[in-house]
Design a protein that fits this description.
This protein has 222 residues and is α+β, with helices and mostly antiparallel strands. 43% of the residues lie in helices and 22% in strands. Belongs to the THEM6 family.
Length: 222
């Protein structure tokens, strides 16, 4: 009888936990950070990182035919967490007394991901200005190398300079490597040119911001 009550309590606790939190999301995030910190190789801040995923039955849309569009953006959480940890980016931002938030995201879908199909997400920094980092993520199916979707994310640093963060990580990488090693890509400390698609996207964001400032949402008292 006692065993039955214990099992009922455990089952009830699990149901309650899943009702209040998306448990598998937090568990996967924990595993992503664990493997990035203890099992994967650290990389240069301008290198590309790769994480793998699979389109499960909880990721598909109502037609059960392909991955739900919103799930692509959630997958980017794991890709960024892996990148932040392996490059030391997040720890450096925190050490400078700052934080980072997602400022904007644009994604272009090229071909859908079918249920149970395996994909990889490549992540890299493609540009930065004084307060912002721009990252590009690509969803690629390893079986054919096709880019299924491509996303650009704008990461806003709150209270520190993006240039300072990038410079510190580059200098640290040079000191750790000491000299040029075979097979190690040496990246000069030069800010890249803003890609044309990012420039046009930023123009669109500025137009949107200007329109919103001209038409503020009225405050109503209830």
């Amino acid at each position: 009888m006692l065993t039955c009550w214990v099992l009922t309590g455990v089952f009830g606790a699990i149901v309650l936990l899943y009702g209040l939190l998306e448990v598998h999301y937090f568990l996967r995030m924990f595993l992503t950070l664990f493997f990035a910190r203890f099992c994967k190789k650290k990389v240069h801040i301008l290198d590309e990182t790769i994480v793998y995923g699979i389109c499960t039955t909880t990721d598909v849309d109502t037609l059960l035919y392909h991955m739900n569009n919103a799930r692509y953006l959630r997958e980017l959480d794991f890709a960024r967490a892996d990148f932040y940890e392996r490059t030391g980016l997040y720890r450096e931002i925190c050490s400078q007394g700052s934080g980072v938030v997602q400022g904007a995201t644009t994604i272009r879908y090229r071909r859908f991901l079918k249920p149970l199909s395996i994909f990889k997400i490549t992540s890299k920094i493609i540009y930065w200005d004084e307060k912002t980092l721009f990252m590009e993520h690509r969803f690629i199916t390893p079986s054919d190398g096709f880019i299924r979707a491509i996303a650009i994310c704008r990461q806003r640093l709150l209270d520190c300079s993006a240039e300072s963060v990038i410079s510190t990580l580059m200098e640290r990488s040079v000191k750790q490597n000491g000299s040029v090693e075979a097979g190690v890509t040496q990246i000069p400390h030069v800010r890249p040119q803003m890609p044309p698609e990012v420039a046009r996207w930023m123009e669109s964001n500025e137009i949107s911001s200007a329109l919103l400032r001209q038409n503020p949402t009225p405050v109503t008292n209830c």
